[in-house]
Recover the amino acids of this structure.
């Protein structure tokens, strides 16, 4: 029962939360609406039947909620990542936190914009040098 053998699949409890969050948010997103005068993007396709959205929340519900979020739906309590940027009109490319309570940013998460002004963006991971 000790370690895992090669090729063995780990259970969800054995995979770090940061890895599960990255696996959920990485993918392609389409602009779908606005919230607090900023764009809302939805991952296409959904992940295991769950919608994943990137949205902005203003400070109307308190300063700790102000910024950009990855969540099930706009304004939901369950989120995967947060960015405190209050000025950007679009989701910031880097500097995301995979835990709302953590002050540490995840250097592996980055947003890439579609080159054709199609309303698409891509969330990717990369290894920091």
């Amino acid at each position: 029962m000790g370690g895992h053998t090669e090729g063995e699949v780990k259970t969800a409890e054995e995979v770090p939360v940061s890895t599960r969050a990255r696996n959920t948010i990485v993918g392609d997103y389409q602009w779908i609406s606005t919230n607090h005068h900023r764009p809302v993007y939805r991952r296409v396709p959904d992940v295991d039947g769950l919608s994943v959205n990137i949205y902005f929340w203003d400070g109307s519900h308190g300063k700790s909620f102000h910024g950009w979020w990855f969540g099930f739906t706009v304004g939901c309590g369950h989120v995967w990542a947060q960015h405190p940027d209050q000025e950007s009109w679009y989701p910031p490319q880097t500097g995301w936190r995979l835990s709302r309570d953590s002050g540490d940013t995840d250097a592996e998460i980055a947003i890439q914009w579609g080159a054709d002004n199609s309303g698409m963006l891509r969330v990717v991971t990369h290894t920091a040098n």
Remarks:
- The two ends are 35 Å apart (CA to CA).
